[in-house]
Every structure is written in structure tokens, then in C-alpha cells.
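Q: Convert this sequence to C-alpha cells.
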Amino acid sequence: MNTREKRLGILSSLPLSILLLLTFIAPLAAIAAFSVMPEKVFTLAHVPDFSAYSEFVREGYWKSLAWSLGMAAVATGVLVVICWPLAYAMVRIFKRFTLIITILVVMTLFVSENIRLFGWVITLMKGGLLEGYMRAWTGSGFDGLLYNVPVIIFGLVYIYLPFMLFPLAQGISMIPDDARYAAADMGASRWQIFKEVELPLAAPGIVVGSLLTFVLAAGAVAESKLLGGQAVIVISDDVESAFTYGQNWPLGSALAMVLIMVISVLIVLTLMKVDLDKVMGKGK
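A:
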């Protein structure tokens, strides 16, 4: 590559680089700067103060972070189990109807997340649709299924299913039929084909879908508020409360930075244990 091509490449990437700088790096830098300001400060013209980070431990905000990460991890695992057969069917079985299934799943993204969750609130609440039908059919009802951890995880699984399904379907589509047929001809069982052939070859989709789902679920807040009734407080709720009701921007910024740093470390550690070249089929 000569000097002229390098300069042309730099000039071509300049607009996107400026856009990323203004829309991603600059807000992140502002949050990081506010996180080291004294309490109740709304300007950056102060001496750095790390009291907001000490408050993260002192006031027990780490518990909210643990709940967020734990529920995100469980939801991600559930989504892998749920989406694998559906993605496999989309690629291998429902070939002509895959587009219809894709459109139906994508259409759910056109409706606000809060509206969809309110639909489940109306369905699962005491005196809601589900209890109403049960009373009509059996003569007895129940106290409702809301305001607990399992229903929050259900909400995470419901909302973020497309973000796992489509990367997983893409990963499964990378599995050559010849590899499966060859393994079967050599006497491999269905479980062995899945474990030794399909799972490793679909690894790119599993990794991408899991990372995407985990990051989104760890920062979610609507599910815990609407379905969980704040049975547990997640870290995103603490961030929102600090910025709004508490009017404590340094604390909100510090909590946001802690969440970003912890997720970043977890992702880096995960990627360090994964041979990306091998996963993406670039190994020797």
C-alpha cells in the first residue's frame, strides 16, 4: 500500500471517526470526568474527588451490580438453550418460511419495550388476563406471578431473544452439511455430531449472541421496574435515581463507570479465553 492509498484511506475514515468521537467517546469521557467530581456538582470545574466510588462500596451499590450481572448471565444461558433449536429450525428445516419467522420476530422490535412489558404485567398480575381465564375455567385463581426474580429473568429473555436468535442462526448457517454427513457416515451419534461438529462450528454465532445479549441485559432497567416491582434493585435503576431523584451526577456517573468497567473486564477475560481466529475459521 503506497502513501497515496494510505492518505485516501485516512480521509475516507475521517467522517466516521469524527462521528464516533462525538457520539461515543465524548459522552463517555464526560461521564468519566463527572464521576470524580464532589457530590451535588453539575460542572467539571472542580478538583477531582473519588468519594463517589467509595460510596459504591459503602452504601451497598455493589449488590445492585451483582443482581444485574447475575440475572443477565442467567438470561443469556436460557436464551442459548431456547434459541438453539429455533435457530437450527430456521436454517435447516423452515427454509422457505425463515423469512416469515424473521419478519415476525423483527416486528416485535417495532413496538416499545415498555409497551410489551406492560402487556405482560396485565397478563400476569393478580386479577389479570391469565388469572381471569383460570377462574373462568377452573373456578380458582392465584395471587399473580409478578414481582420476583424469575419473572424479571423472563422479561429479559423475552425482550432480548432477537439479539441471540439471529447471531445464533448465522452461526448455525456456517455449519457445512458435508461435515455433518461425514460424521454420521463414520458412526457418530446425534449427540457426538452436535458436540464435536455443530457446536464448535457455530461458535462465532454463540459468542456474538451471548456477548450482545449479556451486555444489553446487564444494563436493562425496565424489566426490574415493571415486572419485578423493584423486588430487587439493579444497577441501572441506581444510576437513573442518582441522576434524577437524587440530583447527584457524580454518583450516577461513578455507578455508570463501574458498570462499564466491570462489563468490559468480563468481556476481555472471555475473549482472552477464546481463540478468535479459530472461532472465526481463520486458524491455520
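The CA atoms of residues 21 and 27 lie 9 Å apart.
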